[in-house]
Amino acid sequence: MIDCINLLEDQKLVVTWDLGRRCNYDCSYCPPNRHDKVSPYAELSKLKKTAKFVLDYCNTLVSYKKSNNKDHQLISISFTGGEPTVHPDFLKFVHFIGEERKKFTGEYAGLSLTTNGQFSTIMAKNIVNNFDFATISYHAEALPTQKKKVLENIEFMHSKGFELKVNVMFHAEYFDECVTVCDNLKKLNIKFIPRLIGEHEDSKDSDAHKYTPKQQEWVNEYWGLKVKPKKDKKAREIGRPCCGDRTMEINGNKKTKFLQHTKFSGWFCSVNWFFLHIDENTEEIYHHQTCQARFDETRGAIGKISETDLILSNLKNNLKNKTMPIIVCPLEPDAHCGCGMCTPKSIDGYQFKKILSNHIEDMSIFSM
């Protein structure tokens, strides 16, 4: 039985910034509220204002976090969508935030990108020149010409020494193709993660999309799992890997990158110290995109983009007055860990504070 999880590597604060719903794909497993071809683009002036809040917020939090390596990036700002590269001012905004991050006195903030890789060679060159890292998703149900272009972009960016990772979206109907893609990426020494479809509760096929026992055997073998599948299972029944490929420590001894248990209702959690999510479409800010946990044991936004001054003021006051709250995972039927499950957490309050002390300089800041 799992009662605590610690994060052993890549302990930076990750900002996922959804620039809008516009996308050049229409994946069958992506929910309608996550992509479209008609949503308005966020205005560049508003993006610039929000960028200053993000950097100030992150700089404030990381000043309280431990760092064993002072040269290590403690902040990563990751642009998502929709498809972020379709925004007409995308590169202008990237250039702006690239300069703005230099003004802050805290640790250097890295820029990363989550994309489907469906863009021109010119865009690929710009990404190599302006970003520190990219996650590219391979969607097997795309057109052959689209998949060919994505793989060409992946190989081109890798050849330039650019750091990237490929999320291979394992569609059950294209399972063998996905295995082949993984094999080829491995030969090229390109990082990849086999991603099961239907991991998130708002996926269109979270209940319908299932993997056969034979397909599960491949997943089990890849992740070193010992469970023998007996029936078709949904992704949430199988478990999931850390989407950041981070190593977690379970119960103080076992190390893994894959959790078969992803429901932690009632657990003490530090997700707010490791994640922040900005949603330009709804103009809302969350501790985390998928779990949406708040300090009052409910799920939802912590405020609107128009309320960034208040959000920042509350954070600084809590830290200064040593009244920083601790998140308890909401006791809701659908509450479960997706991306972000790697964050330190425990079902026991004492054990949680012990784990958290590995990451926070001064534990007296907490009201717990």
From TrEMBL:
Family matches, as SUPFAM superfamilies: Radical SAM enzymes
Q: Which CDD domains match?
A: Radical_SAM
Under InterPro entries, the record lists: Aldolase_TIM, Radical_SAM_PqqE_MftC-like, rSAM, rSAM_sf
Q: Which residues cross the membrane?
A: none
**Does the record bear Iron-sulfur in its keywords?**
yes
Keyword list, A-Z: Iron, Iron-sulfur, Metal-binding, S-adenosyl-L-methionine
What molecular functions are annotated in GO for this chain? catalytic activity; iron-sulfur cluster binding; metal ion binding
Keyword Chloroplast found: no
Domain Radical SAM core span(s) in chain numbering? 9-225
Q: Which PANTHER family match?
A: PQQA PEPTIDE CYCLASE, RADICAL SAM DOMAIN PROTEIN
According to UniProt, the name of this protein is Radical SAM core domain-containing protein
